[in-house]
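Inverse folding, one chain.
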């Protein structure tokens, strides 16, 4: 296969279409390479009896209905973060009784238990994760000494091995969430800077920069996205869903409301069309899954239920 390079536009093309546009990976139809997928998975969490779980559930995001059992994480843990490259899902950090640096992986299209991937640069819980189709980032959290962290790590998702330092968030915090366009990653909310949104370019290591602010300051929201729009829902007993256009900077705009206020500890993922928000704590531990259509605005609707009510799970999607 021959390649044509346009030095004025920095495009690299082949017979099937542009494969890179000014440094940004794209598909043969000039659309961005997809880093999400049709199946959503939810792993770990804390149960209503305050014990932790290793359960992984899965759903088909395009179809409403209850989740089914996928397999188990390598250990029961809560406050874990998850990301994927569309094929492999990673779960990093969390708390098993002590704060963890373990990263494990699953193959999303199959079912089965987690396998050891490697370690984060430091152990922490209540961190957030986002990804491109090649690289996964883990940012923030509470470290083993109990301090809020500004550390961002990265891994190459298709391989296994320990994480490498990427850079720092603008503010050290835990209980934040993250999403991405596949090119730019956003980290939003958290404690102690509850309305902050940071951004990074995923394939370029470096410190985060200020993006803007959430409409409502809150701790432990959940985030999901497609290639253009990022959504941040719930947190601190709020039912608010915000949205941003990821490739620009600026403050978030109101999107609509979740079906119930989620105080903390739920998770979100998407198939690029529909975003789902699952679990957490409302008036008690919940198994509820909500969904929205990402490119419209409006209130969430009921999707179905997780196999077990819990908070502090991690979520990602793939095919």
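Residues assigned per position:
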């Amino acid at each position: 296969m021959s390649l044509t390079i346009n030095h004025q536009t920095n495009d690299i093309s082949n017979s099937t279409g542009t494969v890179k546009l000014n440094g940004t990976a794209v598909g043969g139809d000039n659309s961005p390479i997809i880093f999400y997928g049709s199946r959503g998975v939810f792993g770990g969490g804390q149960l209503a009896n305050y014990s932790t779980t290793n359960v992984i559930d899965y759903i088909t995001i395009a179809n409403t209905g209850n989740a089914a059992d996928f397999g188990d994480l390598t250990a029961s843990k809560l406050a874990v973060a998850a990301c994927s490259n569309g094929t492999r899902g990673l779960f990093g950090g969390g708390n098993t009784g002590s704060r963890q640096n373990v990263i494990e992986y699953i193959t999303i299209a199959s079912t089965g238990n987690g396998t050891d991937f490697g370690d984060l640069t430091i152990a922490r819980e209540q961190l957030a994760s986002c990804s491109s189709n090649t690289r996964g980032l883990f940012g923030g959290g509470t470290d083993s000494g109990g301090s809020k962290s500004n550390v961002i790590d990265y891994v190459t998702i298709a391989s296994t091995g320990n994480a490498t330092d990427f850079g720092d968030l603008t503010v050290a915090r835990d209980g934040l969430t993250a999403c991405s366009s596949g090119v730019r990653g956003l980290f939003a909310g958290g404690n102690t800077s509850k309305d902050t949104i940071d951004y990074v370019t995923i394939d370029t290591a470096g410190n985060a920069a200020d993006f803007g602010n959430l409409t409502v300051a809150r701790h432990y929201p959940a985030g999901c996205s497609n290639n253009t729009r990022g959504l941040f829902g719930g947190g601190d007993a709020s039912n608010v869903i915000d949205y941003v256009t990821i490739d620009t900077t600026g403050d978030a705009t109101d999107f609509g409301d979740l079906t119930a206020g989620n105080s903390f500890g739920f998770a979100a993922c998407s198939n690029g069309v529909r975003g789902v928000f699952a679990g957490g704590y409302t008036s008690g531990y919940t198994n509820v899954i909500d969904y929205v259509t990402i490119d419209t605005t409006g209130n969430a609707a009921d999707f179905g239920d997780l196999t077990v009510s819990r908070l502090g799970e991690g979520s990602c999607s793939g095919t």
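The first strand starts at residue 4 and ends at 6. Residues 1-31 have pLDDT under 50 and may be disordered.
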